[in-house]
């Protein structure tokens, strides 16, 4: 599939069947993250792949009203980074998230980006909540979570007619 067609088709999926994501597809999604571009090739990210249903249910409380899809997900990838390695860790992690998001869709796996950085949980921050649950070191910062599952539904693809081409400027603003 052509990349632009894949980008039009990719949608955030928040409802999943109970069918399991095949391990080989999860591995390909993680590999897409590892192959992501990174400033100066530092690759500050690390990924925590979670498949345990109880842990996923607990993770659904990491954001006030915004992570409930984790309860029905088959797995999730938590993207963290050693912020001391580079000042562009958020950008690097975002590229990895995007690559995994696109790879998931290309494999027929539904995914949804759950922002974690600078977000609140019921008590404290999403980062504190997940650090306590997943035990990652203090020097690692949370960027986001990618929920994954077999889509229960797939919204219609986007079209180029929907996008604002006026946002493209040539030569000057």
From TrEMBL:
Q: Name one Pfam family in it.
A: Nitroreductase
Cross-referenced InterPro entries: Nitroreductase, Nitroreductase-like, Nitroreductase/BluB
Domain (Nitroreductase): residue spans on this chain: 8-58, 66-149
Q: Which organism is it from?
A: Lactonifactor longoviformis DSM 17459
Which branch of life, at top level?
Bacteria
Any GO molecular function: oxidoreductase activity
Q: Where is the signal peptide?
A: none
The family database entries (SUPFAM superfamilies) matched by this protein are listed as: FMN-dependent nitroreductase-like (SSF55469)
Protein's recorded name: Nitroreductase
